[in-house]
Amino acid sequence: MEFKLMPGGTISGEARVPGDKSISHRSIMLGALAEGTTRVSGFLEGEDALATVAAFRAMGVRIEGPEDGEVEIHGVGLHGLKAPARALDVGNSGTTIRLLSGLLAGQDFDVELTGDASLQKRPMGRVMEPLARMGAQITGADGKPPLKIAGGSALKGIHYDLPMASAQVKSCVLLAGLYAEGRTSVTEPAPTRDHTERMLRGFGYEVKNSNGVISLAGGGQLQGAEIDVPADISSAAFFLVAASIAPGSDLLLTHVGINPTRIGVINILTLMGADIQLKHEREVGGEPVADIRVRYAPLKGIEIPEDQVPLAIDEFPALFIAAACAEGRTILRGAEELRVKESDRIAAMAEGLTTLGVGNEVLDDGIIIDGGPLGGGVIHTYHDHRIAMAFSIAALRAEQEIRVLDCDHVATSFPGFDALARGLGLQVSALAD
Ligand code: S3P
């Protein structure tokens, strides 16, 4: 499937984007390992989260739904998973493979984890290393999937200083820690999303955070819970940028998760001059939520503060489009993690920006973007959902038509993106390749 976008348009109205991907994954994982039933609403019915559902079904967990975002998980307890009949294929989902590696390291059965062509290129050494230190037996050629995990290892708690700011690695180690003898603790070079810690507490499991040392003791129990998944700020980000760059726009995004470890996109856009207001701030099931109003405002280029990078890590494709539409130069550094996402997002975005005639210079750990007029052209997405959505919204300020190739992966995080975007004013049509 490809998206064809006519240039121009304004973004207005009200919308609730699909549920948070990170929280949806964790709701299935912890619900499956809990005692009793877990009911989830607002669940993301995207391919990545569905891959997590399928993996737990394959390990004997009864999961009803999702239907209209409702899921019911009949937990089997921390020791109730069964050996799957075949390798678990988690598709495109880095979160599933990295978090599952941690919790499967503590089981008494062997398991193999694999995924699609893009996932098979992504680095897994970052989870293999701490798990091996805990006593797990995990192998993967060149540190890439497929990963083989041997059952029956006695895990021991360790302290792990994360070498990179990664919530997936942090979560992997903490989930293995549920099965380890003694305490498992981690420190991170910069705060990353804390949904695992929050949700563990919501399931009645004690997680301590003292002066940045996050820790838990193995051998406890999880109690089934009710989870209301907020709308994903990473999906909302495309519309925060879309409304900011398209003159005349005025949009309300409802029920968006505004966890402080996720709001880098709001902070960065605000520094660029965006008109963003949080309304009706509230807490839903341990996660802060708000309605967000965003109106068009002329943006200016900035030097992105490095402390915001982990807090906006998935939002840079959208933010690069904001930078392309801003007056002046935007500089991003300290973002080497972008090179190992679903695609090398620095290279993929630089290529597309060049196609549209936007001046840019690629750095090892970031990019320099000079705002200016956007032309049109054909964009390659490298099978990356967020590259596809970023260049779709760029059409609002383009002078000619944009064709975004290979958009099937949009469904991993944002099923129905094109229909929702069309309803809000983006002139997009989806065409079969
Ligand atoms: C995620 C963590 C981030 C993010 C990914 C989801 C999570 O990855 O990019 O989309 O749910 O823990 P890293 O841990 O690799 O930074």
UniProtKB/TrEMBL annotation:
GO terms for cellular component: cytoplasm. GO terms for biological process: amino acid biosynthetic process; aromatic amino acid family biosynthetic process; chorismate biosynthetic process. InterPro entries: Enolpyruvate_Tfrase_dom (IPR001986), Enolpyruvate_Tfrase_sf (IPR036968), EPSP_synthase (IPR006264), EPSP_synthase_CS (IPR023193), RNA3'P_cycl/enolpyr_Trfase_a/b (IPR013792). The active site is at D314 (proton acceptor). Pathway: Metabolic intermediate biosynthesis; chorismate biosynthesis; chorismate from D-erythrose 4-phosphate and phosphoenolpyruvate: step 6/7. SUPFAM superfamilies: EPT/RTPC-like. GO terms for molecular function: 3-phosphoshikimate 1-carboxyvinyltransferase activity. Phosphoenolpyruvate binds at K21, G94, R122, Q168, R345, R386. Gene3D superfamilies: Enolpyruvate transferase domain. 3-phosphoshikimate binds at K21, S22, R26, S166, Q168, D314, K341. Keywords: Amino-acid biosynthesis, Aromatic amino acid biosynthesis, Cytoplasm, Transferase. Signal peptide: none annotated. Its EC number is 2.5.1.19. Residues 8-417 form the Enolpyruvate transferase domain. It catalyses: 3-phosphoshikimate + phosphoenolpyruvate = 5-O-(1-carboxyvinyl)-3-phosphoshikimate + phosphate. It is found in: Cytoplasm. PANTHER family: AROM/DEHYDROQUINATE SYNTHASE (PTHR21090), PENTAFUNCTIONAL AROM POLYPEPTIDE (PTHR21090:SF5). Belongs to the EPSP synthase family. Catalyzes the transfer of the enolpyruvyl moiety of phosphoenolpyruvate (PEP) to the 5-hydroxyl of shikimate-3-phosphate (S3P) to produce enolpyruvyl shikimate-3-phosphate and inorganic phosphate. Monomer. This is 3-phosphoshikimate 1-carboxyvinyltransferase. It comes from Parahaliea aestuarii.
